[in-house]
Amino acid sequence: MKIFSSTQIHELDKYTIDHEPIKSIDLMERAASRIVAEIRHLCTAYNTIVVFAGPGNNGGDALAVARILASEGLKVKAWLFNTTGRLSADCKTNRDRLTGMKELDSFTMVIDEFDPPTLDASTLVIDGLFGVGLNKPLTGGYASLVKYINASPSKVVSIDMPSGLMSESNEYNVRSNIIRADVTVTIQQPKLSFLFAENQQFIGELKVVDINISKEGMAQVDAHVTILEEDDVRCRMRQRDDFAHKGTMGHALIIAGSRGMAGAAMLATKACLRSGVGKVTVHTPAANIIPLQIGVPEAILDIDPDNCFFTEAVSTDRFQAMGIGPGLGNNENSAITMIGQLRRAQCPIVIDADAINILATHKAWMQQLPAGCILTPHIGEFERLEGASSDSYDRLSKAIILADRQQAYIVLKGHNTAIVTPGGRIMFCPTGNSGMATAGSGDVLTGVITALLARGYAQADACLVGTYLHGLAGDIAAKKFGKESLMASDIIDALPEAFMRVMS
Q1: This prediction's pTM
Q2: Which of 318, 312, 376, 388 is nearest to 349 (CA)?
Q3: CA distance linking residue 6 with residue 143, whole number of Å
């Protein structure tokens, strides 16, 4: 699913109007009808519906919604804010359609003075002040109105966008001046800002209504942001040949673990094996021999001469992929060995966990990373590497710069994990849940992606397929155990079902 910028959204509206063809006002009416269909059950549960409409097309949508609801016998009061004397053409048309409408309880156009209505628990507020065209924080009377709505006990439905929230960057926004909607009914596609954690407080429950924007037009738009869908993953997955054997299914190297951190090595290794690779060799300190031999008997052990830490690099000539970092520790000898390992590697690499933390403390080493490597940081690891971010958009922008600078793939883990390619493409993963915020979950992802690389997947495909399946396995496990009780090993156990579900 493509995620369009505010500029692209306006272009698609125009394309639909020109090529369907359909009049702009009729497209607005279609949108209003679909919005009403989505929220009708809410509307009938409240004594009064109060509609606040701004001067643009978002306000036009709101006025059309008010008219439809009033015609259905509901008690609707509408306010149109026209403080500048400039309404969009379609907003003006919908204003005219409301004027004198007998079914409407009241209609007030606000030009200078505004006496706010009483908003109580029996009132449903429909917010249509500002939509995707907003490009600066709300101030003055609009900011005051937003605060008044937010302070009320009324349930709030926002049309397309909670007023005050911008569709992309909100780095310099004033968050107290953004509507805190209970429900957001957005048109056609989610907006980029909806995918960021700090904006969930404004969006509430998200509903997407299809208003039949031109599919041809959407196909032609080059959107650099997408949300993965199952078909995107399915078409990239490799079928196992009937004559396959372990020698043809790839040999992966996992460099992980330190004294007391055998679990990280075990989780990454088991996940790698569960993801279809032919063989896995795990290089780990001698202290981890017994737990790994018992816990993952299928793995080949390559024992570091040091009892506690990673101190000896491994030749990668016989491996098709390498994952490095889980439970590695921050020992300085390990750090020196790690950069040597990365420099000499002759296969695709996944860099995770302590390997990223080591790079964060030796930033000059970043320039020695081979092109095409995959980094899988969570937010904390990323900010240690690239510095603190003001918000999710800023963090994503830094990830784009990092991917370009290093010619690397960045898997920025979290809710809606973002996969950033060297070409500036961003793919958000919709699978996964908060139960996966548990120790070892990232180690599992490292194992999955490393396995796919070893099997011959290209880096971009390994990232998106691996991230999607990892999240799906987490969703399957959460249904079985609940989010509160989810452990990383549960994700591994659910990987077979995740693979079968997508490949079926």
Answers
A1: 0.95
A2: 376
A3: 22
Q: Is the separation of the CB atoms in 162 and 12 below 8 Å?
A: no
Which H or E run contains 183?
Answer: strand 183-187
CB distance 53 to 59 below 8 Å: yes
- 230-503 is a CATH 3.30.70.330 domain: no
Nearest to 246 by CA among 155, 314, 171, 320: 320
Domain 2-222: which topology?
A: Rossmann fold (3.40.50)
Cβ neighbours of residue 364 under 8 Å, at least 6 residues apart?
none
Give the residue among 33, 47, 39, 34 at the shortest CA–CA distance from 154. 47
353 to 143, 311, 356, 375, 419: CA distances (angstroms): 43, 17, 5, 9, 17
Taking CA 146 as the corner, what is the angle to CA 145 and CA 149, rounded to the nearest 5 degrees? Answer: 85
d(CA 195, CA 188): 15
59: three-class secondary structure by DSSP:
helix
Strand partners, 211: none
Helix (H) or strand (E) holding 381: helix 379-386
How many CA atoms lie within 13 Å of 211's alpha carbon, on the beta-carbon side? 28
Contact 450, 322 (CB under 8 A): yes
- Domain residue spans in the chain? 2-222, 230-503
pLDDT tens for each residue of 437-458:
999 999 999 999 999 999 999 9
Say if 2-222 and 230-503 have the same CATH topology.
no
Q: What is the pLDDT of residues 305-359, one digit of tens each?
A: 999 999 999 999 999 999 999 999 999 999 999 999 999 999 999 999 999 999 9
What token pair was written down for 231?
Answer: 């078909």
Q: How far apart are CA 93 and CA 61, in angstroms?
A: 11
Tally of CA atoms within 13 A in the half-sphere of 317 that contains its CB: 1
Distance CA 38, CA 278 (A): 49
Q: CA–CA separation, 447 vs 257, rounded Å?
A: 13
